[in-house]
Amino acid sequence: MSSNVKGSRPNDRVEVWKPPPFGPYKINVDGSFPRINNSGSTSFVIRDALGIFIAGGGTSDSCFLFAEHVEAVECKQAIQFAVDNNFWPAIIETDAQVVYLQLLNNSSVNLSILGTV
User: Fold this and answer.
1) How far is the C-alpha of 53 from the C-alpha of 91, rounded, in Å?
2) Backbone angles phi, psi at 49, to 5 degrees
């Protein structure tokens, strides 16, 4: 997600959602991890090229290890939901760089505590 829109401070940037090109859906995933009892919540939204809401979902649990764990679980759940419901092909958008890089490099060995995303 990128934008050139400036916020209220000189170095602030406001992220603006951009629709996918015609054809694929866009799946936005996000998670929350306040570190209280390892609790967290996840959510995803699927939209089409017009920005119309197609589907969404989420979970909350108290067994997450860290913020990237929340995002990885949500990416996996969102992708599985999209495949199961024929919302495919799709573009996945996440703000978790570690998870994003794991999705891009899925052919390499993943020695992290989470394993392969």
Assistant:
1) 15
2) -65, -20
C-alpha–C-alpha distance, residues 81 and 103, integer Å: 17
pLDDT digits (tens, 9 = 90+) for 58-104: 988 877 888 888 888 888 899 999 999 999 999 988 887 767 666 66
Task: Determine which of 4-18, 33-47, 65-79 has the lowest per-residue pLDDT on average.
Answer: 4-18
Report the predicted TM-score, pTM, of the whole model to 2 decimal places. 0.73
Residues 77, 16, 96, 109: is their CA dihedral positive or negative?
positive
Contact of 57 with 14, CB cutoff 8 Å: no
Nearest-angstrom CA–CA distance, 84 and 3: 32
C-alpha–C-alpha distance, residues 61 and 68, integer Å: 14
